[in-house]
Amino acid sequence: MIDIRDDWKSKLVVYAITDDREDTKSLLAAVEAALAGGATAIQLRRKRDDGGPMLRLGLEIRRLTREARALYIVNDRVDIALLTEADGIHVGQTDIPCKRVRELAPDKLIGVSARTTAEAFEAERDGADYVGVGAVFPTTTKADAIHSGIDTLRAIAGTSSIPVVAIGGIDIARAPQVLAAGADGLAVVSAIMSAPSPRDAARAFASLYRESDRSR
Amino acid sequence: MIDIRDDWKSKLVVYAITDDREDTKSLLAAVEAALAGGATAIQLRRKRDDGGPMLRLGLEIRRLTREARALYIVNDRVDIALLTEADGIHVGQTDIPCKRVRELAPDKLIGVSARTTAEAFEAERDGADYVGVGAVFPTTTKADAIHSGIDTLRAIAGTSSIPVVAIGGIDIARAPQVLAAGADGLAVVSAIMSAPSPRDAARAFASLYRESDRSR
Ligand code: NI
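Predict the joint structure of the above. Result:
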C-alpha cells in the first residue's frame, strides 16, 4: 500500500486550510475542488465545531485526501486526528504542546505554529516535523494573529532544519515573495477556500511553485 | 494503590462541573473548596479554552481530585482526558459518539448526555457507563439547553440499568425532588461554582443526599 506520508515534505507545498463556514457540504465541495486543482495537503481547522461534526468532516476529508494522495492534517484536536486516521496534527502556541501530542500520536506528523524565530527554534527542539510561520501578511481569517512578516519568515527558513510552511494572508500575488523568502509550503485559507473556483486557485498556487526556484 | 474508580457509582452523587470563567486561579480555588466540602466528582468543562489552557487546568484538577479521592471527568476532549489521566469522559449529543470515545479510551468511564428517554436508551445500548439527564430545570449556564423536566428524569431513572446523573438548574431547594425522581447523582455548575462558599454548597448537597431515600 502506498503511504500518503511517503515524500510528505513535498506535500506541504499547496497546503489548504478549511474555514469555519456552517455549510459543510459547500466546505467539502471546496476541499474536493482544491484537491482536483492540485492541493497537496488539507488541514481540518474548525474552531467552532463540537467533536461530532468535526469527526464527520474529518472522515470525509480523509476519504478525499486518500483518493488524491494528499496529506490530511487536523488542527488542535488529537482525538479527532486519531479517530479519522489523519497523517498529522497541527498545533498552535495555545494548543496541546508538541511533546504531549507526540505521546498520544507517536506516528503522526506534528506541525507547530511559530510567530518568531524563538518559537520556531523551540518547535524544532520539541520535535516538530514542520513549522508553520506567520502571519506573514495581515489576515482576515485570524483577526488576532500577530503579523510576523516576510523578514521573520526568511530568518526562520534560513536557520530551520525542518520544513517551513508560511501562513497568513497569502494570495497568488504575494506567493512569489513568500517562496523567495524560503518557504517550503504555502498555507492558504481564503485564497483557496473562498475563491470563485477553489480548483483554479489551487492549480495557480501549484504551478507558481513549480515555476519557482524552490522546486529545483 | 487505591483506584479512585473503585466504587465509582457512589462518586456520582455530588458531581460539580467547572464554569467558563477566565480567572482559572479562582476556578481552581472553587474546585478545591467544593472537594473539601464533599464533592465526589469534578467535571472539567471548558468550551472556550484551547487545548493548552485546558491541559493545564486538567492536570491541576487531577491532582486535587486524587488527593480528595474524587472522580475527575473531562467534557468532550478525549485527548485532554488521556493526557491528564482522567477517570472518565463526558460527551454530549454533538460530541464524539460514545463508541468512538471507547476506541480511544477503552479503560475510562464514559458518560453521555441525554435529553429524552430515546437518547438515554441509545446511550446505554452504545455502552455508556452513566447517563447525564437534563436539563431538568431551565438553566442560565446552557442557554440553549432543552428542558427535559422531572418527568423525563423519572422515566429514565425507572428504566435505565446504568446510573443516572441529573443536570440543569439544580440547586439545594430543587435537589430533593430530583433525588425523589430517582437520580443517582446531582450534576451542578453554578449552585456550587458560583456559590458564596463552594465548600458549604457542596457540603449541603452531600448531606441532603445522605438524608434522602436514595442513600439507603
Ligand atoms: Ni474546542
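The longest helix of chain A spans residues 51-68.
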